[in-house]
Amino acid sequence: MSNKAQKLLCIAFSALVGLSITAAISTTSQAAKRKPGKVVRTMKYKTMKVKAKKGYVYTSTKLTKRGVHLTKYKNKVMTTKKAYLIKVPGKPAVWYDRVSSKNKKLNGYVYNNYLKVIKKSSTNGKTSTKTTNKVPVDPDANVPLKDLYSYGTNSKNNSAQKLGLDGDQSYYNADLFSKYPANLEDYKSVFVKLLNQERQSRGISPVTIDSTLASIAEKRAQDTKSLGTLDHYDNAGNMIAANYAKEAGIHFSSLGECLGSVNNAPTLMTVRESLRDYIYQDAGSDWGHRDTLLNPSYSHIGVGTATLKDQGLITNAVVMY
After folding, report:
1. How far apart are CA 30 and CA 86, in angstroms?
2. How far apart are CA 114 and CA 108, in angstroms?
3. What is the pLDDT averaged over residues 51-78?
4. How far apart are CA 72 and CA 64, in angstroms?
5. Which segments does the entry list as coiled coil (predicted)?
């Protein structure tokens, strides 16, 4: 997952380097040779009508026995309202939806990425049916950040993971989630909202958004995008954010900055991934990000964002005093 080799640069200053996220891969090995799968998480949602052009319908969550192949039922409508995160030994954990059809021939479990949601739209008084990609539901929306390791993996009982050591146990499917990129303006407000929840849970006063700091943070995000690197200092050794703050007439006794990159995905998932790494998976940076974001002396914050389209990343800059 995260490569956090860079050390804390200065008091309250740290930089989070870019994330490399492993996408979930569906197995192509014969089911008869596969070891039984185990359900590690379930997810319920509103009943949806779906279709699939490929993939097998497995008869149980063990994924050891294949039913029909969906290439023979490309136009068959199925319904689903529950999904299971299944871990097969030696394979990444992936999501399978429980599907069913009216004639009961297609009852079982289908790899989530093969399913397309059928939506009805009305045009000129006529109803037509179109198939769209299934927007992924955040499977960890109710899991506290402190219990997450590689996004989607509960690390509550794993001391090594809780220390923020690197690993590749994520089912986070970057190829899928990048189809639903975060809204950059929403990212900023959600970031502050969730950060304040973390601060208040520790008895630390919340921070408020400062428009001048927000402008500085936006410049810092654009600086990072232009330079292609996460760096607090210019060639002369001056802290760039501090220079911007002085130019804007901000007087501070201490200024904190966090810089980071995260794979693009739906807004809430992206923010949670950023904060999880900053606060709970920061051992590689001597916990500098955590100490900055949870500094009780800071009361003002600005968040800036930029998209690195060629890399599928969102760069964020957080400036606080």
Report:
1. 17
2. 14
3. 90
4. 21
5. none
**Conformational region of residue 307, where left means phi above 0, alpha means psi within -120 to 50, and beta covers everything else:** beta
**Please, which residues bridge with residue 14 across strands?**
258
Token pair belonging to 277 = 């790494």
Scored b (16 or more CB within 10 A) or e, 74-97 reads eebebbbeebbbbbbeebbbbbbb
The pTM (predicted TM-score) of the whole model is 0.57
Q: Left (φ > 0), alpha (ψ -120 to 50) or beta: where does 249 sit?
A: left
Tell me the pLDDT tens digit for each residue of 155-174: 444 444 444 444 443 445 55
Q: Smallest Cα–Cα separation from 111: which of 132, 87, 94, 127?
A: 94
**Which residues face 69 on adjacent strands?**
56
Question: Closest by alpha carbon to 119, among 96, 137, 142, 135?
Answer: 135
Other beta carbons less than 10 A from residue 102's beta carbon: 10
Report the sign of the C-alpha dihedral through residues 50, 186, 270, 311, in that order.
Answer: positive
Q: Would you state the structure tokens that stand for residue 151, as one six-digit string? A: 């996004």
Which one, of 106, 63, 115, lies nearest residue 86 by Cα? 63
Between CA 187 and CA 269 the distance in angstroms is 10
Burial class (CB in 10 A: 0-12, 13-18, 19+), 223: buried
Considering Cα of 136, then 41, then 38, then 58, what sign does the dihedral take? negative
